[in-house]
Amino acid sequence: MDIIDEISNSIIKASTSFPEDRKRALKKAIGNEEDENSKWVLKQVYENYEVASEKKLPLCDDTGIPHVIVEIGSERELSGQLISNIYEGIAEGLRNLPARPMAVKGSDNERVSQSAGLYDDAGKMSPAPFIIDTGKDLSTYQREINPDTLNLHFILEGGGPEIRGKTYRVFHKRSYINVLDTAIQWLSESLEKLGCTPSIPSIGIGRTHYEASSLLLKSVAYGNLDKQSEIENYVSDELNKLNIGPLGLGGKTTVLGSFINIGNQRASGVRIVSIRPACFVEPRVATISL
Description:
Blueprint: H1 3-16, H2 20-32, H3 36-55, E1 65-72, H4 80-96, H5 108-113, E2 131-133, E3 150-157, H6 159-164, E4 166-171, H7 176-194, E5 202-206, H8 209-222, H9 230-240, E6 259-262, E7 270-276, E8 284-289
Parallel strand pairs: 1-2, 5-6
Antiparallel strand pairs: 1-3, 3-8, 4-7, 5-7
Helix pairs in contact: 1-4, 2-3, 7-9
């Protein structure tokens, strides 16, 4: 298959299908939920997954901003031509989906103020800067990348979770629980305002704002609800005690699980923590191997 077509199809897959581990987690939540209204919402969310996947329709009207993680081994090359193909494939995928046109026209001032309007072409929504992963950095979600590996992960990030996310310093006080509890407090505040729960929140803990955000994004691409760590279960259990529930209606299911990625740290009293309270159509991820 042509690489541009393959990337285009991956964008469509990320937007219209939901991974099996998320489906299993949602089925489990439906069985455990005691509040009848909340149980009904969870069933409707599951039905939305099924219809979107069958008819190749976007899981949400907010079709998101594309993000790309490139996993590359020591014997592979990331050429200028491949990068160009990635950009073209993403644009074609957004057009073929079709995505909602959201790219803003104009100069620097006009783009910030959104005063020049939007492009009609959904393909104008260019991806965020790429992350290159060689498997060398220490992290919870560190991957074994072979010399001949070349994987492309495509992630679609919606606006609601983005405006309720946060990246900031935390004084660890020589306690990882203090850091986690601070992240839980931030997520508690954002999940109350999110609306589209149940969530799968993500947390990245690193040395800089860029690194913490990158670690968070990798957790979105690599996380698996079937394989939750003790720390991830701790965060999920604390958030499910909030009684926010599906769509804020209350109940036991505020989150389906959590993805937490802890990277390299430095000798300091501060950790940089990034949180993202994903809505119930996320994470939207697709992967191709070249």
